[in-house]
Amino acid sequence: MTLSLCVQLVSRLPAVAVLHLRRSCEFSPRVSMSSYSPPPPPLPDQSLDTEAPNAPVTRERRLNPDLQEQLPKPYLARALEAVDPSHPQGTKGRDPRGMSVLQQHAAFFDRNGDGIIYPWETFQGLRAIGCGLPVSFVGSILINLFLSYPTQPGWLPSPLLSIHINNIHKGKHGSDSETYDTEGRFDPSKFDAIFSKYGRTHPNALTRDELGSMLQGNRNTYDFPGWMAAAGEWLLLYSLAKDKDGLLQRETVRGLFDGSLFERLQDHNSKKSS
Length: 274
Fold this sequence. Notes:
Strand order of the largest sheet: 1-2
Largest sheet: 2 strands, antiparallel
Order of helices and strands: HHHHHEHHEHEHHEHH
GO molecular function: calcium ion binding; monooxygenase activity
Structural class: mainly alpha
Shape: elongated
Organism: Miscanthus lutarioriparius
Region (Disordered): 30-52
Distance between the termini: 125 Å
Strand content: under 5%
Number of domains: 1
Family: Belongs to the caleosin family.
Protein name: Caleosin
Helix content: 40-55%
C-alpha cells in the first residue's frame, strides 16, 4: 500500500524534479589520498619579536627579552629609586627625601640645600667630584646658562643664572638615553637598553668606543644642543669614573642617575686629599 503510493507520487512529479532527486541520491567519488594536501601551518606569533629581518639596526642594537623575569614591572618608570635587576629596591640605605630621581641627581650640586643651584655651587660640586679648575669653571657657566631659564618659576630670567631643582625636569635635553622620562622618573627598561644595545664587549659595561656608538645612536635629527650636552655629560663621566680597564661599569652609570655616584666620588676625593 505504502510502496504503491510512493510510486504514484513520484510518477506525478515533473521530469526536472525527478532528475534532481536522482542526482541527490548519487554518491560523490572519493578523493584519493594522493591528491590530499594538508592545511598550511599557522603563522608564528611575531608580536614579541624585537628584531626585524629588514631592519639590520634592530639586530645590531638588541633589547633584553628577559628583563620582565629579572625585574618586576621594568616598563614602569620609578619616581624615587633608580632600580635594575641587581638593585630592585634602588640604592640601599639612601633616602630619596621625596625627590624624583632626576632631582636627586641635581641636588648634589645644591651645596647649601635651599633648592636653588647657583653657578658657584655648580663649580664647587664639579670640584668635589674630581674635575679640574678649567673644566669646573667652564662647566659651571655652561650648565647654569642652559638650565637656568627653563627651570625658573616665572617668565623672567635670573640674572644670577639660578637653577630651581623643583623644575629641573623642564631642563631635560634631547638626544639622550631617555632613562629619565619627561617628569624626571627613572625608566628601568631604557637604562637596561644602554647595555643590551651597546655593551658588546662586556654585558654590564661600556668601552670608550661603545660609549661613542651610544651617543651617535641616541642623536635626534638636527638636535645640535642635545648632541653637545649628551657628549659633554657622558665623556666627563667616563673621564671621572671609568675603571682601571677603561670600562664604564653599569653600577657606576646607575649611580650617576640618582646622584649616589657623586657622593662616592666626593668621599673618595676627600679621603685622598686628607
